[in-house]
Design goal:
138 residues; mainly alpha; 2 domains; 7 helices; elongated
Length: 138
């Protein structure tokens, strides 16, 4: 996920994808009726993905979450950032984003999430040693 975020930042892929989808919508004559599609992609899809991620963390990822709470907090911040970033595509939510001054603190939210994930990786202890300890003589 961090790699994809870095690629997006480096090459500004978001605007390229937006231009491509906009051209497709205009070519297929549904650009003027795009609000329902924007709602589905900006609100419904991230919500469903967040539910699936939560279900995975509650079941299969439980031991990882217990051992790496800093990583979990970082991923939650990154998912919050991505969710808020995606909701700005749905135009009716823009006044709400402006009222919470989202544009003033969104970069800090993203940076804090990435920093927490990186710190969690740096301080993580391996769950099992890579090689068995040498035998001791008694």
């Amino acid at each position: 996920m961090l790699f994809l975020l870095a690629l997006n930042k480096a090459f500004n892929l978001r605007s390229e994808f937006e231009a491509g989808i906009r051209a497709l919508a205009k070519a297929e004559n549904w650009y003027d009726r795009r609000q329902p599609v924007q709602f589905a992609l900006a609100i419904v899809l991230p919500f469903v993905l967040a539910l699936l991620t939560g279900a995975f963390l509650a079941t299969k990822g439980r031991s990882f979450v217990r051992c790496h709470p800093l990583a979990l907090a970082g991923w939650v911040l990154l998912l919050l950032y991505l969710s808020l970033r995606q909701t700005q595509e749905w135009k009716p939510v823009l006044p709400w984003l402006s009222s919470i001054r989202y544009y003033d603190w969104r970069s800090a939210l993203e940076a804090a999430g990435m920093l927490m994930v990186v710190l969690a990786a740096l301080i993580a202890h391996p769950s099992s040693p890579s090689r068995p300890p040498p035998p001791t003589m008694s």
